[in-house]
Amino acid sequence: MKGKPMWFVYIGIVTALLKYLEQDWFRDLSWWQVLIPFGLAFAWWEVFEPMFGFDKKAHAKDEYEEGRKKRIKDSWKTKSRK
């Protein structure tokens, strides 16, 4: 779930840039409308992710991967000694 809210940030950057450059119909949008994707990304990271435990799942997965890499590294060390 780490990559999902990043789309909000990407969309926000593109819309803010197009608004700043006054391109097509983006010039008619208010800045509040342009900044909505940033608010959604913030809400996702600060409210929904902790509420549903996505941050803990990602942390547990990282710990698992770190332990896995350590076990692989240790197994190569013991094999090379023989």
Structure description:
The chain crosses the membrane at residues 29-48. This is TIGR04438 family Trp-rich protein. Residues 59-82 are annotated as: Disordered. This protein is mainly alpha-helical. It has one domain. Helices cover 79% and strands 0% of the residues. The chain is built from three helices and no strands. Helix 1 (6-20) runs antiparallel to helix 2 (31-52). The longest helix has 28 residues, at 54-81. It is elongated, with a radius of gyration of 21 Å. 1% of the residues are buried.
Order of helices and strands: HHH
Radius of gyration: 21 Å
Structural class: mainly alpha
Q: What would you call the shape? A: elongated
Major beta sheet, specifics? none
Uncertain ranges: none
Strand fraction: under 5%
Cα end-to-end separation = 43 Å
What assembly state would you assign to the polypeptide chains in this entry? single chain
Total domain units:
1
What's the β-strand tally?
0
Helix content: over 70%
Quick synopsis:
This protein has three helices and no strands. With 82 residues, it is an all-alpha fold.
Write the layout of secondary structure elements.
Blueprint: H1 6-20, H2 31-52, H3 54-81
Helix pairs in contact: 1-2
Organism: Parvibium lacunae
InterPro entries: Small_Trp_rich
Region (Disordered): 59-82
